Amino acid sequence: MKLFYKIDSYTRSGKPIYRFTATNVSGAYVEFSNRGARWLSAVVPDANGVSENVIVGYDRAKDYLGDEYYMGAVIGRFANRIANATFTLNGRNYTLEKNDGRNSNHGGYSGFHQKIWDWEELPDGVRFTLSSPDGEGGYPGNIRVAVEYHWSDKCELRIEYFGITDMPTYLNMTNHAYFNLTGKKCKIIGHKLWIPSHRILDTTAEFIPTGRRVEVNGTPFDFTREKEIGKDLYSDNEQLRQNKGYNHCYILKDKKSSDMVEAAYLTDPVSGRTLTVETDLPALLLYTAGYYIRPDSAVCFETQYYPDTPSHSDFPSCLLHPGEEYRHRTIFKFGIIEGR
Fold first, then answer.
1. Domain layout of the chain by residue ranges
2. pLDDT, tens digit (0-9, with 9 covering 90-100), for 215-271
3. 90 alpha-carbon distance from chain centroid
4. Residues with Cβ < 8 Å from 286, sequence gap 6 or more?
5. Which residues, at least 6 apart from 37, have a Cβ–Cβ distance to it below 8 Å?
6. According to the model, what pLDDT value does residue 41 have?
C-alpha cells in the first residue's frame, strides 16, 4: 500500500487543505481530504479492467469550499435531522442550530463537514482527528473524535469511527459519499439495488421520523429483491414526492450491537461494477440525491443511528457517556459482477 499526500488548496484564512491518495497493489486508489475528513474518489476497474472514479464530487479542489451537498464528508455531531433543533438530556433542554427550516440537519452550521481535521498516516490509509468544544452547535460536552480510512488490496475501504466525551452527549457519525458505478455523470436509475431490510421509518414532510416502523413489502421502498433504482423512483407516491426520490431510513437492527451486517448491494449492469456495504450501525439512510444539482445522478448509503434518536426512547440509543467510547465501522467493497 502506498500513501501520497500534497497540498490541494487553502482555506480563506490560509490553512492548507491536503489531498491524500492511497493506492493498492492493483493500482486502484482512493483519495481523501482533511477538510471535512472527506472521501473524494474511488478509482476502481470495471469488468473490462478500465478504471474510473465512482465517487461523485467536484472537478476542482476549491469547489469543495462552497459545497452545499456534504460531498463525501464525515457528518457529525449528528447525522441527519433532529426535530425542532432541540432535545432534553438529564432534565436540561439543549437548543441546536436550525439549518433545515425549524430543524437541525447534519450537525447544523457547525457540523464536522466544515472543519479542518488533524491527520496522521496509517500503513494502509489515513487517520483524521477533531476536537469539538462543549456547546458547539448547541451540543453538550467536549468531545474528541477520529475517523480512519483503511484501503485494502481487495478494493475494500473500511471506515472506523471513534469518539469520547467529558459529558453525556449524543454522537451519530456517518460518511456522505455519492456513488455512481458507471464512473460517468449520468443518472443511476439503471443501477440495481438490494437492501435486506423489510422496514423503514415513517417520516413527516420535513423528513422527521414519526416513530412508526413501516413494512416495505409491496411498496416502492421494497429492495429485498434486487431491482433497478429507477423502477419505482418516479412512481406516484407521496413519500417519494416529498423527498424528491429516496431519502429514507432502512432499519438494519432494532437494538445496538457490534455485529456486522450487510446493508446494501449495488450493481451497474453496464460497467459490471459492484458495491457491497457492510456495517455494525443500526440503520441505512438511502438517498438518491434528489436535492443535488444533478438529481438522481448518484446514490448515498449513510450508515448511522436512526434520525431524531434523542426524541424517541425506543430507538437504539447513541447517547455517549464519559468513560465510554463511540466505536463503529462501515466497509465499502468494490467488485465485479460474477461471470463478467
1. 2-336
2. 999 999 999 999 999 999 999 999 999 899 999 999 999 998 999 999 999 999 999
3. 29
4. 195, 246, 247, 248, 249, 250, 264, 299, 300, 301
5. 73, 74, 112, 117, 128, 130, 147
6. 98
The pLDDT tens digits of the residues spanning 53-76 come to 999 999 888 899 889 999 999 999
- Any idea which fold 2-336 has? Beta-galactosidase; Chain A, domain 5 (2.70.98)
CB of 212 closer than 8 Å to CB of 201:
yes
The overall average pLDDT reported for the chain is: 96
pLDDT of residue 339: 73
Report the distance separating Cα 73 and Cα 65, nearest Å: 12
Q: Record the pTM.
A: 0.97
**302 is a catalytic site residue:** yes
* Structural element, H or E, at residue 300: strand 300-304
Cα–Cα dist 153/29, whole Å: 10
Given a contact cutoff of 8 angstroms between Cβ atoms, the answer to whether 302 and 75 are in contact is yes
The closest alpha carbon to 82, from 172, 150, 21, 22, belongs to 172
| Mean pLDDT computed over 158-187 | 97
Q: How far is it, in rounded angstroms, from Cα 30 to Cα 131?
A: 25
Name the active-site residue from 106, 113, 150, 176.
176
Annotation marks residue 262 as catalytic: no
Given 136, 150, 302, 328, which residue is catalytic? 302
Distance CA 340, CA 290 (A): 31
Q: Is the pLDDT of residue 340 over 90?
A: no
φ and ψ at residue 85, rounded to 5 degrees: 55, 40
